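Bumping with the actual sequence this time:
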Amino acid sequence: MSESDTWEIINDALECKVPKRIPTFCLGADWDFMERFIAEVGFTYEEFRRLKKDRIPFICPTHIALSIKLNIDFAWMTALGQIIWLDEYNEVGMMHGGRFKVVSRDSTYEPPEGHVKRPIPHLWYLKEGLTTKKAIQNFMEKKIRYPKYEFKNFYKLHTVCENKYNLIISGGLTGPWENLHFGIGFGNIAKFWRKDRKFLHEINDFYIDIALKGMENLVNIGKPKVIMIGDDYGYNSGLQMSVAMWRELVKPTLAEHVKIIHDSGAKALLHSCGNIGELFKDFVEIGLDGVESLKPKNNDLVGLKQKYGDKIALLGAIDDTDMLKYSTPEEVKKSVTQSIKDLGPGGYIPGATNFLLDQPVENIYAMLEAINEYKL
């Protein structure tokens, strides 16, 4: 499969056309999955040398080398942004004001006898870093921007992946809702929404300015063919906020992002976990080309496909928390094949609904085999 064919099938799928074959997608993978994958499958020394020479990361993000090894067509990579100092806690945080910490947990991988089980590192979100109105006001006086070197590095990476490995990488930024609630927390959003909405919009505007300048740099410096914004709107049972709040605080910024992306000639996608079906009408209205995650137990995927399938592509939708974890490889292949029948073949790019975490490696191979073997 040539590079042009790889992009062609992805582009056709995102335009809700029937592609030459069904493309594959990988959102990401954590250390635990990579440890088990390397133990069970691994990379040859020649593969390691070639990837290292091309500066393909094995560490962070781990899934780029993994996607190449698995011959995946489409992956995602976000810009993390600037590390800042949080005065209230005398510690560092992320650029939106959220508190993160490197922690470790036990791996699900059991090493051979005589080998020590190693802890798995993770960067976990702890809580908001801006808890008082004064802290928020002081924070908004800081000069915070996405560093341009991230976009330069992304350009180099996605170019070599596309030209040498037939892997299309979607660029990404954190979306408007996560920037807001990571920084000031759900409690403050609810309080200001009821008691001081003018101030809530001032905070939101501060984050919007950072995000839109970041998006302009991503399209101008990073030059991706696809951009996917990460912004989780749902719990398992429904939205994290009212539709009215989403339309007032989030939708206008998301629409501006889509315009910047489309003006650059790229496709605009959204990664959003949870039950988000209520927002699909709005997604179509602002011109999103596709939506990713779409856990089948949380969303009426067949209903969304029937209603919007000719207007917006669906990505992911292969259950990662239950089916991929507990089914046999044969059951996985049957389930994935049924998903393609229900949601495709046009306008659908299947993959695990979230990062590869504690699923058996053989089940991921089964998922990819089912996608690659699907006959159009």
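The tokens above came from a reply further down the thread. The mean pLDDT is 94.
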